[in-house]
Design goal:
two-stranded antiparallel sheet; globular
């Protein structure tokens, strides 16, 4: 079975409920690479994230990398998934009117 990386993203919730999480390039927070929902309990939580992004954003992310001088070529892994290249990304967490962001570093 191939290795599939995961990251555990810690966050605090004031109450139980669903959290919407979205992933953005650090250099362009308007671009959404992936969005998903996760259940949260009151207190400290850990969201599991598989380090993939939506195929619809492949060309956009590729162009951003090229504009930054990064020669990484984005392509699907043997399992058919697109994984984030090394770099820094912003994870935005939303619950109701509350918003929090954190940096995710992929090494």
């Amino acid at each position: 079975k191939p290795y599939e990386p995961t990251a555990h993203i810690p966050f605090y919730s004031k109450s139980d409920g669903d959290i919407t999480m979205s992933l953005h390039p650090k250099s362009d927070k308007a671009t959404v690479l992936k969005s998903w929902k996760t259940a949260a309990n009151k207190g400290l939580n850990y969201a599991e994230y598989d380090l993939t992004f939506n195929a619809q954003q492949q060309a956009t992310l590729q162009k951003m990398l090229e504009n930054e001088g990064d020669k990484t070529k984005l392509k699907k892994a043997d399992n058919g998934k697109l994984y984030l290249p090394k770099g820094e990304y912003v994870v935005l967490l939303k619950k109701g009117s509350s918003e929090e962001e954190m940096v995710l570093t992929v090494e």
